[in-house]
Amino acid sequence: MDRILFYGFDKNQYLCKLYDLVSNSNTFESLKLGRLSFTGKDLLDKYQSQFFLDNSIPSLSSKAFFRFYLSIQRRRKNLEIHSCYNEWQISIAYFINYLKINKINSLIFENIPHEVLDLCLWESAKILGLSCNFLYQIGLDYSGDIFGKFIFGNNPYDLSDFPQLNTYKTLSRKIYNNDRIRKLCISSVEVKEGIKNQFFISLIRTFKLYLFNSKFNFRKLINWIFALITLKKSVIEYIRYLFLSSSCISIRKKSELDAYKPFIYFPLHKQPELTTVILGGLFQEQADAIILMAKNNLNTGINILVKENPTQDAFQRNHYFYKRILRYPNVKFVSTSISAEDLFMSSIGVATISGSSALEASMHGKRTFIFGKPWYLKCKAMSYYESDRDIIDFIDKLKNQNDQESIKIEIDYFLKTSSKKYCDGIVDSDYLPKSNLDIDETLQETANSILKEIRLRNE
Question: How far apart are CA 359 and CA 381, in angstroms?
Fold first, then answer.
């Protein structure tokens, strides 16, 4: 009997219940591994003399280690690269040993691994040749055909490898997105006309967005108050980041957009995150994509307007990030107070690494350019990066604004046809139904979808 490791299913009560429903099916043996609280440094201190580090561990120059090195900066800055590589080696060795001892045949991740130890577990499974599957929620409020569905995939770089003969029905009850989360991510509050101290308003708004979006509670409030009183280094770094990001903004009001037309809108992802670390492909550092777009767009008269992610904090946003981008005169930063919808509706096109902004823009007939490897990779309504020539071709296409209806038709066809291959259910608690009765039904449908996919992969 297969022994499956479920990773990340203890984040909240909903995922714990989902794990119980799936694991009680008696079709396989299961083991749950929660989100890991220890670090690679803990492993290094405790187990360094107990594991043999062989040549199967990806090298210092590998893409796998580069992903790890980017992610580790999410929690610890300025880590010396060779110290980081030592942690990488011992973490991989630890998980290889863990998977062997527990006789794991395959793994199921709740969402794609993108944090430090998640990546090590994933790489260890690949070294051992184990099957890895990912439950990826489709965060797109489009229609009943696709909303309330998730992807069960085994390739994080292209989540379109679904069983061709497998179809799912639409959820029996309407699923509602968490409006608070969506409003924070899609559009921020407008800055009122006439306010002179725009920087102060931007500072307050960013703090409010960060606090509301990080599931704030009384304990966190006490920690923040204590940090402010003692002026902890992390708070000082965060305030320095706010000053830095605000000073780079050239466009603070919606009324100023006309002066920069025509422009391509480029919304930034929160970083590091799965949208860049895993689905970014070559562009795990999204500044590289912006610079490449700027270089191939210098003499066209088209600007690139970049908007910071409202939920981004100080992690991985130092002055070099902004300095590299702002070397190009055709790149401008816009305030987070200007909504995403206003930006892509005023633009002639949208570019992104792998975000849902490309889908939303396409639904309004806008041309979009994708640098990464998102789940909608095979949609013909968009342009994708393979070489610099693709960027030049995309810019040439922007001159033709008479194909909006064909783009809408293509994106509509893609979403409706591909939705038949997606699984019923919710694996991200931000998309839960409103009533407890609906949650119980959704849990059961989600568990049934997961069990169905496991059976298909074991046939």
Answer: 9
DSSP 189-232: PPPPTT-S-HHHHHHHHHHHHHHHHTT--HHHHHHHHHHHHHT-
Q: Give me the domain span that covers residue 366.
A: 180-416
Co-location of 128 and 154 in the same domain: yes
Instruction: Indicate whether 208 and 133 sit together in one domain.
Output: no
271-323 pLDDT tens trace: 777 788 888 888 888 888 999 999 998 888 899 999 988 777 666 676 778 88
Neighbours of 105 (CB within 10 A): 16
CA atoms within a 13 Å half-sphere pointing along the CA-CB vector of 148 = 22
Name the region of 402 (left: φ>0; alpha: ψ -120 to 50; beta: rest).
alpha
Do 99 and 196 lie in one domain? The reply is: no
Does 429 share its domain with 410? no
Kindly tell me the burial class for residue 407, based on how many C-beta atoms sit within 10 Å of its own C-beta (0-12, 13-18, 19 or more). Answer: buried
* Residue 164 pLDDT greater than 80, yes or no: no
Number of domains making up the chain: 2
**The tokens of 298 are what?**
């210098």
Taking only the tens place, the pLDDT of each residue in 209-226 is 444 444 455 665 666 666
Question: At 347, phi and psi to the nearest 5?
Answer: -85, 170
Contact 423, 152 (CB under 8 A): yes
Nearest to 347 by CA among 325, 324, 364: 364
Q: Are residues 113 and 201 in the same domain?
A: no
Q: Do residues 191 and 302 both lie within one domain?
A: yes
Q: Are residues 275 and 372 in contact, defined by beta-carbon separation less than 8 angstroms?
A: yes
Residues 45 and 128 in one domain: yes
The pLDDT, as a whole number, for residue 226 is: 64
The residues with which 150 forms a beta bridge, in sequence order, are: 137, 423
DSSP calls for 148-159: TEEEEES-TT-T
Q: What is the pLDDT of residue 75?
A: 62
